[in-house]
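Rather than argue in generalities, we have chosen a single entry, letters for residues, whole numbers for local backbone shapes, without further comment.
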Amino acid sequence: MDPALLSGTILVVGVLLLIGIGAPIGIAIGLPSIVALAAVVGPEQAVFVASQRMFTGASSFTLLAIPFFVLAGSLMNTGGIAARLIDAAQVLVGRMPGSLAQTNVVANALFGSVSGAGVASAAAMGSILGPRERREGYDPALSAAVNAASAPSGMLIPPSNTLIVYSLVSSTSVATLFVAGYGPGLVWVLACVVLVAILARRNPTMRGATERVPLKVALLTLLRAVPAILMIVVVVGGLLAGIFTATESAVIAVAYALVLGLIYRNLTWRNLPGVVLDAARTTAVVMLLVAVSSALSWVLSYATIPQTISDAMLGLASSPLVVLLMMMVILLVVGSFMDPTPAILIFTPIFLPIAMELGVDPIHFGMMITFNLSLGTITPPVGNILFVASKVGGVRPEPVIMKMLPFFAVLLLGLLLVVLVPQISLFLPQLLGQM
């Protein structure tokens, strides 16, 4: 058998088999890659080549931003930021129908924009807002569904570790991706806001709005949240102004979050080691995935799998839109079984060249693939944000999934909008001279 065909077959079958039996994704990617290499260059050489590719893949300077942003998010989650952002969100949308649910949506967007972590957002917002919603008569399953559906918006709104990973694979600017993320992130948030308003009109338990907040109290509440929101200005603004790189901005975010947490007194020197340990665990998982995906990419390239898929897709359809929609369908399926980081590492090298051949800007494609795979975080059977929101909300996942069906529908429409209207992603980068 042709060596390229043999290695490609071993790789594809091995990855699918290990994912199917529930093996950790790092093992499911790394082990078949080494076996596929062994079939071509021999066992000893395969270990050497795989190790070399893994080291090279994980040694990028840009990737240093990920552990620091993860740590900044952990510090924010522990440092009392969530409660202040929830209060600010309630001032902004508390008079709308379904006020607490709307507050959940906006607070998730605000917290996600300073922490970049959808799971942390769902956990923080669910633990604080969940009891309030129960007291007001909200259906717990619906509350958890709103929390889960809105939490992934932080994966699009910068700073976003997912966008940093895409930047590494696609060789695009982190700063440009961060700016581009605001458009699709706003689409995600607005889709949830509109649907919650519709549901509130049909559900009597959600109709009550909070009492009008006096102007002085509202301004004071917003002022208390300014230091947390200011982190976005410092990180993204400094990055766009060229004052520091993405990695340096992540370090500044850690220092800012640490000082803020200590000032708020929710973060103490005693619980700081636990926060750092949690961030280290998350970072270790991400970096392992980056490393093994680098070895996987080498085997994919050797087996000419990206070119084979490209030729097949372009042969099936001549319309660029049809090809893009085919990619989106594949990624929706993949995202329901695989976390965004490995999915981006595996499928960007395959799909991005096809998209660029069709005239799609790589920044626009980055927004499409990130929006798409963010949906996977709330889609069973993996759906880590979905299960976290269910657990925090104290309900089983099954009724939450049923309540989320309308959210899936509007978010799929949002994805279609991002695909069809490139300016949603490209308007801000072009306006700010990033492109």
